[in-house]
Amino acid sequence: MSATRKAFISDIHGNTPALEAVLADIDSRGIREIWCGGDLVGYGPDPEGVIRLVVKHARSCIMGNHDWALLNDPIGFNPVAAEAISCNRRIMGEHCYVGVKPGCSDWNFLRALPDGAEEPGLLNVHASPRDRLSEYVLASDVAYGPSDKIVDIFSRFERLCVVGHSHRPGVVTPDFQWVHPFEIPEGLVMQKGRKYLVNDGSVGQPRDGDNRACYAEVDGERLLFHRVAYDYRKTMEMIYKAGCLAPICAERLAVGR
Known about the structure:
It is built from eight helices and twelve strands.
């Protein structure tokens, strides 16, 4: 893994005010390399705005399960999430839904996303190294010691794996403990030769009880989480105006759930 400072963002879900605030925070810290872990669309009101900001600012971007669902079908999605996919298709133009077409650059960008990005010692996938789009890695996986699931997951990457998907930030340490961001306010120094799995949280829809946007930074061997306040009321109003998103998509932004 290169020593270049990196910011890891994911689960933006059409929330441009949150993404704009996070990008400004990343820039203010002098971080020049951004990795995006997917889920640019779904739940939120401005998928196109998010895609264009990611295209402009991110070094790499991978596919999330909501991105895949937009292009295919929302298989296994709850009714609110499935309805949001249908809404996002209408917002982005349903004429672009089938096939690569001129004038459909946002759709074409999503179609071209890989299911992972990596460099030596670093793997970035949306969900899990075992199931890159859909498997959750949660604190419960290590609550009673290392589960077979987490041991298998750790066998599938070299040094550091960064995921999103659950919208709940945290670190699984080499001794299979879940560390919450509030437990490491000054960051975590990763020991050389040992493995770590990091969930970078969610930019656009946090679900850990903190309504601020979340992203992770890796600075050499040091891992940090950053929380960024943004005008979530603006996003709520955008959701209501969209007219095809469930009210809960807006209401949950206020409470970070």
